[in-house]
């Protein structure tokens, strides 16, 4: 299984009054990594995959430890944990080589903007996503 790595710079404006990255800013980091994954890495030159739009149906975030301002970026590592007929789940870790700051997941629904409704995942999109699909853990 492949994992997508996105380097995310920390901005001074990301900090809150307590001197660490504000909890809401982590959503922006996840969004930047997700957009990079779904649109810049979409298969094929000129492929319409994922270009019709998508909406977030759910976010789940576990804040593991505070992240304070520094000049080095953090890495947002992402992979797919579920592919349904009309949704997918992306998991993330916001981290550096020494520690994890956030573990999160997002349920994304492909959306037909012209029709104003959700749509199914295409065969091309599914093929692309399967490269990043995590193996199911073995039953104990």
TrEMBL record:
<dbReference type="GO" id="GO:0047617">
    <property type="term" value="F:fatty acyl-CoA hydrolase activity"/>
</dbReference>
<protein>
    <submittedName>
        <fullName>Acyl-CoA thioesterase</fullName>
    </submittedName>
</protein>
<dbReference type="InterPro" id="IPR050563">
    <property type="entry name" value="4-hydroxybenzoyl-CoA_TE"/>
</dbReference>
<dbReference type="InterPro" id="IPR029069">
    <property type="entry name" value="HotDog_dom_sf"/>
</dbReference>
<dbReference type="Pfam" id="PF13279">
    <property type="entry name" value="4HBT_2"/>
</dbReference>
